Amino acid sequence: xxxxxxxxxxxxxxxxxxxxxxxxxxxxxxxxxxxxxxxxxxxxxxxxxxxxxxxxxxxxxxxxxxxxxxxxxxxxxxxxxxxxxxxxxxxxxxxxxxxxxxxxxxxxxxxxxxxxxxxxxxxxxxxxxxxxxxxxxxxxxxxxxxxxxxxxxxxxxxxxxxxxxxxxxxxxxxxxxxxxxxxxxxxxxxxxxxxxxxxxxxxxxxxxxxxxxxxxxxxxxxxxxxxxxxxxxxxxxxxxxxxxxxxxxxxxxxxxxxxxxxxxxxxxxxxxxxxxxxxxxxxxxxxxxxxxxxxxxxxxxxxxxxxxxxxxxxxxxxxxxxxxxxxxxxxxxxxxxxxxxxxxxxxxxxxxxxxxxxxxxxxxxxxxxxxxxxxxxxxxxxxxxxxxxxxxxxxxxxxxxxxxxxxxxxxxxxxxxxxxxxxxxxxxxxxxxxxxxxxxxxxxxxxxxxxxxxxxxxxxxxxxxxxxxxxxxxxxxxxxxxxxxxxxxxxxxxxxxxxxxxxxxxxxxxxxxxxxxxxxxxxxxxxxxxxxxxxxxxxxxxxxxxxxxxxx
Length: 552
Prior knowledge:
Blueprint: H1 7-26, E1 33-36, H2 38-44, E2 51-56, H3 61-74, E3 84-86, E4 98-103, E5 106-112, E6 114-118, E7 125-130, H4 133-138, E8 148-150, E9 155-157, H5 163-169, E10 171-172, H6 178-184, H7 187-199, E11 202-203, H8 205-212, H9 214-223, H10 226-237, H11 242-251, H12 255-258, H13 277-290, H14 325-333, E12 341-344, E13 347-350, H15 351-359, H16 371-390, H17 398-406, H18 420-435, H19 445-464, H20 479-485, H21 493-508, H22 514-526, H23 542-551
Parallel strand pairs: 2-5, 10-11
Antiparallel strand pairs: 1-2, 1-8, 3-4, 4-5, 6-7, 8-9, 12-13
């Protein structure tokens, strides 16, 4: 394994080396520069890293960065950004101030090598001091993240003595004894899971045992802010193998430490969550449906089910910039909270919402907080819809019935990131996870195949009827036009109802024109099927609100 520098990286290393020599000669200041952490690991694995952390010996980040920027400008005549000072923020793992600038188009962070000591009840160090490369390396989370690249000697330094071998062998190991490492900072348990799932590496047995220690798991609940837990989980779900992350959380008995609602908030669930195995089974089903060519063996012993292929429409969003994968896997991980509720100001709310908002402190990014509760609501609706369609229980013409189902606000709604195809996929995942009983080690493939066939038939019919565009179609007439056509004195509650019927007319008459719709509307009024006098008078501005409701 070796590091191959790009032309810009080579020039940067030369600049750092020359600057330290310049400081020694001009000021008598002696320091050395090492590139630390992720950049070294990724370069050794053959990947490119776009930002670089510089670890300094016996010198703080800001003073060196200011001198380095000045050296680049005055001696080398380079255009360099000013130094930005990032204050220490222990709650966000920033225990020392960091200096940031950009040189040669590469973003650089400067910080000193350090040693740390921790209090028993906090992950924030009680003492941070200048350290040696060895002291800095052993305080890091895992050995593969404790490697340095010395810009002066152009060599990789492995001060733990294990980082390079662990990188070659695909091993996740802590530099110090894992229990000591985790008690100092329990968040490192989740970081180990994240890197193991990202690279497909194996955790050493002693690390796994330490992660299962009840004292470590309690420390993870008590010492770590829920924001930090949510941040690590988000990175896992957006990583290369979210299924492996969920598998590791389950294998290490960490589910309740990760997916929990903090006490003291007054949130009382309608029932206890079901077994964490449900989360893994839902994630396994999702992986099997979305990645049929990628086989995987779980650490928990559950086999990846061999399932029939699903209709391509159900996976259509995976090839778009709005790939829903991370939201779907997090939703799958929350399956044990399905159907559970809690009361908020007297109103019943889904439990998954409380876990995301309070337990993980995740907001609307990637449509977690708004989109995942919608996925579960849509799954209930679509499960019944698929069954009714299979049994021919349609109370409207087929195209109208299916189109109306797809346009339900929890099924398809750009505001929450909900897309009907993804909602159908998640509904299928939940239905298959329900078929996979708690006491069964394998999924009943015969029952699962029948279920998939029902969803495929509906998806095929959606395609044949050219219904995908209908999910976003706007009413061919707006509220004001409806009021005018029907010669009504004003808009009212009736307007939204009429606009909904306009949408149904469009679904039934995909080739119909605006004029055709106007003629139909007048005929409906003449036949006495539309009453424009019912309800309270509303302001003209409310017409738009009714129109929006009809659009959904």
